[in-house]
């Protein structure tokens, strides 16, 4: 789609920012942020007017491809389509360069959602000069009564214009000032948008949920409940503001003025201009914080209702939670909920791969004998890589500690991650007999040396050492994990690549060659590296957090693997080049 993206030139951005008369920038929004040009164009001279030098801005942007850039700039994405956004009561400033075709709609919508603040908008001059529609006439009246306009030629034709346009623009300034007397002592925040509610009350339209999934009815109910909560928040906030307003008319208490002194406050005197402004800012602050809390609750409810987190490993949950911070900034609307759920569905495969890699790494990290090595597909002379695969018969994991005659919570979490990943590899939501169940019901037997079966493993527990020995009951599922991780990390060739048999021979034979490869690793480490890897050794350094150390260890293990494979005429690169015995046979057949 053409979203009419015309980045704001820096000179025009400066002019727009200088239009603001109130320089106390508390909460600023750009409703059509694009790549953030208008926000980056804030003059340096204005920085001290902000609470923080790198203060984030609220932004809307309908073109999702710009969202990563906006997040890198630390902005808070609160919505996609600004015309659907309603949470502007706590904003103090709105600055915008909307699509020219919808400029009048954006400015009028900004005016509607703003309670007390300023608007600066860059729109097509024709919108003002040719008021040929009801909306254009309404905007002209607003400017006449509440602001001003400046017409600028060639604003998008200067040397800093990324997308030149031969257009005259109107730089519109509007000031909307809250009327405390009307808003607090009269109508409550535009009658709390009563037109959205029926006589049945704030939660009108809510129906009891009859289904277990997250159907349309459930989403509608969530949004209705959220809107009701926001309306109640506004009512409560303004009710408190009323109480404060009326109390100020009565003057101070005896304790405040002193029992013997006379108060200088005239009974019934209206608050001063400064007191009124303070009251306005207090109301906006309470609304803003309360609205953030309600959004947090609502979005968290969506995440819990999908039961998604129950199916993810602990690390996958942490990654989703980190991403969810961005989702929570969006307005809580039906469209945004569907967008979030669609994104989760599209990322389901990636989440499963990440979970598989997490479990693979947890198995190979603490016990080097749990993995064997083969020559990875991406090996080359410049940067050789070694592939890793789990042993299909048995692996050992340490650090399973007990507390009050059972495993501690961290140990159960690790076992639960195993249950989720191996059930996923088996095409199931959960195992019939989980590892967690085995340890909760057979803990004493396990401590006595018993070997107990879960759906995917027989396990033995050694409480003194805190180790568990896992014996795979289905080697095919372990191999499935090996291949999933191997393809993700490019240790294995892509599915669309035809690979000669020698590659798979060395892959399948990795366990048989493991002892020989480890001896070669030790020889190379002693002769070439001389304790370079410390007490961890090259094998232990494969999981190092230091990238340079990790790459050096990979290169050493790859060299050792290649040496052993060449001894057995199983180096697939030599076969492909025609150097090995199998390669010579292939070349002869081709000739």
From TrEMBL:
Name of the protein this chain belongs to: DUF4942 domain-containing protein
Pfam families: DUF4942
Record Gene3D superfamilies: Vaccinia Virus protein VP39 (3.40.50.150)
Domain DUF4942 span(s) in chain numbering: 292-490
